[in-house]
Amino acid sequence: MILLKNCLKIATFNRNLDELSGYDILIEGNIIKSISKNIEVKDAKVIDCSDCLVIPGLVNTHHHFYQTLTRNLRPVQDAKLFEWLTFLYPIWAKMDQEAVYLSTKLATLELLKTGCTLTTDHHYLYPSGFNGDLMGIQFEAAEETGIRFAPARGAMTRGRSNGGLPPDEVVQNVDDVIRDMERVIDKYHNPEPFSMKRVILAPCSPFSVEEDGMRETAKLARDKGVRIHTHLAETRDEERYCAERYGKRPLALMEELDWIGEDVFFAHGIWLNDEELKLLKDTGTGIAHCPTSNMRLGSGIARIREMIDMGIKVGLGVDGSASNDSSDMLGEVRNAMLLQRVRYGEKGLTAREALLLGTRNGAELLGFPETGSVEEGKAADLAIFDISHIQYAGAHSDPVAAIVFSGYCHQTAHTIVNGKILIEDGKHTSIDEEELNRKFRKKAEELWEF
Ligand SMILES: [Zn+2]
After folding, report:
1. pLDDT means per 10 residues in the chain (450 residues)?
2. Which of 64, 158, 260, 361 could form a disulfide with 320 if both were Cys (CB 3.0 to 4.6 A apart)?
3. Do residues 14 and 374 lie in contact, with contact meaning Cβ atoms separated by under 8 Å?
4. What are residue 20's DSSP bridge partners?
5. Cα 151 to averaged position of ligand 1 atoms, centre (Å)
6. Which residues pair with 27 in a beta bridge?
7. How many A from CA of 288 to the centre of ligand 1?
8. CB of 53 within 8 A of CB of 396?
9. What pLDDT is recorded for position 450?
10. Which strand (E) or helix (H) includes residue 386?
11. What is the pLDDT of residue 321?
12. Cβ atoms within 10 A of the Cβ of 166, count?
């Protein structure tokens, strides 16, 4: 048992959005057993939370872990999406098993340190010559860091020789993709409540995947009861590509391919018109909003304020680390709030709305309703921020919003996943961070050798 004692503030993000002062939280096994004042139990590990804000673990709904190895590459620091991709694909084509393992471990560690307890990873890069069970390697690394993990089996099936954007050596044929998608669902997907492992299917984008690949993916996902995900309406270039290739706008193409509904969520959704927003709302289709990446690549500002007002499902994602260039989940919450104010003025998004997108809403998007709020009976996935640190000095009139408005180091004091303390006093409890850092940097430098 773990007892979080005398919490300065708990932002529950339950349906009433209750915020509690001076309460304790008792964790038994992997579940929040009790939230009350003055809980007394024997044999519990006690953590003094009198200087801490406790929130539900943050949920990351879009990422590409492998890109942590290619952050901040100078030739594409100032490139827009299609140029950026075209430069990076040949470097990414060199990804091997060690790269997948190390990048999954590093990205999940960074996410845990910044309060994230549940993440997906959209891995669509399967270079020809890659051997081994790619998703199995990812699950192995994620088990070592301890994060709740729902990776998406991605794919690219249209190479340059066929009118697509990626080089041919990183694309696969549709039959191989569908066969492997079925394999990973059968092997790894656990639909049970409190599951640590679920699988999502995610062909990469309309400009890198054939129409039959999209259709067959949706069919398989519905047969198996898993979610589907892809990039959509990220840039004007994508709009032009879809107009030229299909004579349609991106969302109209998705609708035709059966890619619409409550089991579907798209990354970005920036360039959507009024009718398209209404279609998302009417069909329960979700959006993974990635504000930092959208700013970094100059892609545009998504209409999140309007989406929330319409009742469209929206979560937050850090996006790949070559367009963020970090896995800072609390930073993403802050950027979500600030970027909406650039578009809509001072009421663009409140700190609490941004936190809600990053917690309960994200959990719903990924299909983990047992997480995303601090409530008795829910999963013990918690992010605990010590706000006595100098970076929050003067911000204590509102401890909840303090972590969004103030602070320059977005790390938790403690992060708990499934009832286990994974980050304690800012450090992972079992990973040798120095050794991981050393191995990771060596691997990254190997990849950049132009
Ligand atoms: Zn992405």
Report:
1. 98 98 98 98 97 98 97 93 92 94 98 98 94 96 98 96 92 96 98 97 92 96 98 95 95 97 98 98 98 96 98 97 93 98 96 98 97 98 98 98 97 98 98 98 88
2. 64
3. yes
4. 10
5. 13
6. 2, 32
7. 10
8. no
9. 53
10. strand 382-386
11. 84
12. 26
How many whole angstroms separate alpha carbon 264 and alpha carbon 318? 19
Q: Whose structure tokens read 């050596």? A: 169
Q: Where are the beta strands (DSSP E) in 8-160?
A: 9-11, 19-20, 23-28, 31-36, 45-48, 52-56, 58-60, 116-119, 122-123, 148-149, 152-155
Q: Structural domains in the chain?
A: 2-56+373-428 (2.30.40.10), 58-366 (3.20.20.140)
201 Cα–ligand 1 center, Å: 14
d(CA 348, CA 56): 23
Helix (H) or strand (E) holding 403: helix 399-405
Distance (Å) from CA 157 to ligand 1 centroid: 17
In this structure, how many other beta carbons lie within 10 angstroms of the beta carbon of residue 333? 28
Tokens of 129: 């010559």
Q: Which pLDDT score, from 0 to 100, does residue 256 have? A: 96
Determine the distance separating the centroid of ligand 1 and the alpha carbon of 26, expressed in angstroms.
37
User: How far is the centre of ligand 1, averaged over its atoms, from the C-alpha of 233 (Å)?
Assistant: 12
- pLDDT at position 224 is 98
Tokens of 101: 């393992």
- 76 CA to middle of ligand 1, Å? 16
CA of 53 to the centre of ligand 1 (A): 30
Burial 177-205 (b: 16+ CB within 10 A, else e): bbebbeebbeebbeeeebbbbbbbbbbbb
Contact 429, 416 (CB under 8 A): no
pTM score, whole prediction: 0.97
Going from the Cα of 336 to the center of ligand 1, the distance in angstroms, rounded, reads: 16
Asked if 53 and 131 touch (Cβ cutoff 8 Å), the reply is no
How many angstroms separate the alpha carbon of residue 18 from the centre of ligand 1?
33
How far is the centre of ligand 1, averaged over its atoms, from the C-alpha of 181 (Å)? 19
Distance 49 CA to ligand 1 centre (A): 36
Rounded to the nearest whole angstrom, what is the distance from the C-alpha of residue 292 to the centroid of ligand 1? 11
> Which token pair is 113?
């340190």
How many angstroms does the Cα of residue 318 sit away from the middle of ligand 1?
9
